[in-house]
Specification:
By secondary structure, the protein is an alpha+beta fold. The protein folds into three domains: 7-120, Butyryl-Coa Dehydrogenase, subunit A, domain 1, CATH 1.10.540.10; 126-227, Beta Barrel (Butyryl-CoA Dehydrogenase, subunit A, domain 2); 236-381, Butyryl-CoA Dehydrogenase, subunit A, domain 3 (Up-down Bundle), CATH 1.20.140. The chain has eleven helices and eleven strands. A four-stranded antiparallel β-sheet has the order 4-5-9-8, with helices on one face. The chain has a three-stranded mixed β-sheet with strand order 3-6-7. Strands 1-2 form a two-stranded antiparallel sheet. A hairpin with a 2-residue loop joins strand 6 and strand 7 (184-191).
C-alpha cells in the first residue's frame, strides 16, 4: 500500500521487525487457509501454540513467561493478524487482552504462576465470561451470581447463571467468569471440566465464522476459595480488561481495511472493462483514494493511542474514539472495496466481504458504536446520558 504519509518513518526498528514477523506469519499460516476455515465455520486450534511461539499471546504483559512488548508493537501485531481475519485477531485478543490480563492484573501470585506461562505459550486457552443474554452493554445488570459456600477463610463459592457470546469457551482450559456477589462484582477462575459448567458453541453465524463464540451456563458450580481473583472489586476489574481489547481493535480494524483496499486495488489494476483497467476510471480512483485517506488517518490515530499507552497516559475516552472511528471506517472501506470487485466480490476468493461481515461483530463487541458515542459524549459535555 502507498504510505503517502510516511507512517513507517514514525516506527522504530524493533517495531518494524515485529510487524514484518507477524505479517509473514499471516501470509504463510493464515491467508492460505482462511477461506476454508471461514466457509466451514471452524477456528484452527492448531494455530494456538504457533501464535504463542510468535510471541503475540499476552504480548503486552510482563513476567510469567509473557513477551513484555510495547503497546505499539502489540498494535502492529493486531493490525497484521486482522489483515488475515478478524477471527484470528480475536483469538489473540480474548486470550491475551482479556483472560490473561485479568489474571495478570487481578490474580494472586499462585494463579499467575499456574496459568500465565502456559497461556503465553498457547498450551492452555482462556476465555472471558462477562456478557449475558440480557446484559450486553450494561454489565452492571448481570444476573450470574456467586454465593458463599460455608464460613471463614476456607469458604468457597456456588456459581449460578448464564453468559452469551463468550469467545473460546468450549475449548478453554480456564474460564474467567465475572459474577455478582453480596459484595458486588467479583472475578473467578473456573477450570474446564468443573461440574455444572456447560459451554455450547453458537452456530449459523453470518460473521466471525473462523472463530468460536458460546453460550455458557453455570448450574450450582462449586468453587474453592482459590477460584476468586483476589484483587478484582466491582466493574473496574472487567472494564480494565475491556480497554485492553478495545485498544487492540483500533489497530486491528485498520488491518481488515488495508487488506480490503489492497484486494480492490489489485483487482482494479488487472480487470479490464471497456478496453482498459478498472483502475483507469475516475469513479474507481475516487473510491480507492477515499479508502486510502481513511486507512492512513486511522493508522495514525492507532499509533497515537499506542504512544499514549506506552507513556502511561492513555484514557478511556481516547480508546473509545479509536475503536468507534476505526471500526466504522473499516466497515465502509470493506463494503466499498467489494463494489470494485463486482459480482466476484461475493465469493471467498476475495477478502473484502468477509472482512465486512466480520467487522459487523467487531463493531458490536467490546462496546457498541452507541456505547462509545455516549462515553465520548459524557467526556465532551460532562453529562452521562446512558440512562
Amino acid at each position: 500500500m502507498s504510505d503517502v504519509l510516511a507512517i513507517d518513518s514514525l516506527l522504530s526498528a524493533d517495531e518494524l521487525a515485529v510487524r514484518e514477523r507477524v505479517r509473514d506469519f499471516t501470509e504463510q499460516r493464515i491467508r492460505p487457509g482462511i477461506a476454508g476455515w471461514y466457509e466451514d465455520g471452524v477456528f484452527p486450534l492448531e494455530l494456538a501454540p504457533e501464535l504463542g511461539e510468535l510471541g503475540v499471546l499476552g504480548m503486552h504483559l510482563k513476567g510469567y513467561g509473557c513477551p513484555g512488548r510495547s503497546a505499539v508493537e502489540y498494535g502492529l501485531a493486531a493490525l497484521e493478524l486482522e489483515a488475515g481475519d478478524s477471527g484470528i485477531r480475536t483469538f489473540v485478543s480474548v486470550q491475551g487482552s482479556l483472560a490473561m490480563t485479568a489474571i495478570h492484573k487481578w490474580g494472586s501470585e499462585e494463579q499467575k504462576l499456574q496459568w500465565l506461562p502456559r497461556m503465553a505459550a498457547g498450551e492452555l486457552i482462556g476465555c472471558f465470561a462477562l456478557t449475558e443474554p440480557t446484559a450486553g452493554s450494561d454489565p452492571g445488570s448481570m444476573k450470574t451470581f456467586a454465593r458463599r459456600d460455608g464460613t471463614g477463610d476456607d469458604a468457597g463459592w456456588i456459581l449460578d447463571g448464564a453468559k452469551r457470546w463468550i469467545g473460546l469457551a468450549s475449548v478453554a482450559d480456564v474460564l474467567v467468569v465475572w459474577a455478582m456477589t453480596d459484595d458486588g462484582v467479583h472475578g473467578f477462575l473456573v477450570p474446564a471440566g468443573t461440574a455444572g459448567v456447560t459451554a455450547t458453541p453458537i452456530g449459523q453465524k453470518l460473521s466471525m465464522r473462523a472463530s468460536i463464540q458460546c453460550d455458557v451456563t453455570f448450574d450450582g458450580v462449586r468453587l474453592g476459595p482459590e477460584a476468586l481473583l483476589p484483587a478484582a472489586r466491582g466493574l473496574r476489574g472487567p472494564f480494565s480488561c475491556l480497554n485492553e481489547a478495545r485498544y487492540g481493535i483500533a489497530w486491528g480494524a485498520m488491518g481488515a481495511a488495508r487488506d480490503s483496499y489492497q484486494a480492490a486495488l489489485k483487482y482494479a489494476q488487472e480487470r479490464l472493462q471497456f478496453g482498459r483497467p478498472l483502475a483507469g476510471y475516475q469513479l474507481t480512483q475516487e473510491k480507492l483514494v477515499n479508502m486510502l485517506l481513511e486507512i492512513q488517518k486511522g493508522t495514525l490515530l492507532a499509533l497515537q493511542l499506542g504512544r499514549l499507552k506506552d507513556a502511561g497516559k492513555l484514557r478511556p475516552e481516547q480508546i473509545s474514539l479509536g475503536k468507534l472511528n476505526n471500526v466504522r471506517e473499516a466497515i465502509t472501506i470493506a463494503r466499498e472495496a467489494r463494489t470494485i470487485l463486482g459480482g466476484n466480490g461475493i465469493t471467498l476468493d476475495y477478502s473484502p466481504l468477509r472482512h465486512a461481515a466480520n467487522l459487523e461483530s467487531v463493531r458490536t463487541y467490546e462496546g457498541t458504536d452507541e456505547v462509545h458515542t455516549l462515553i465520548l459524549g459524557q467526556h465532551i459535555t460532562g453529562l452521562a446520558a446512558f440512562r
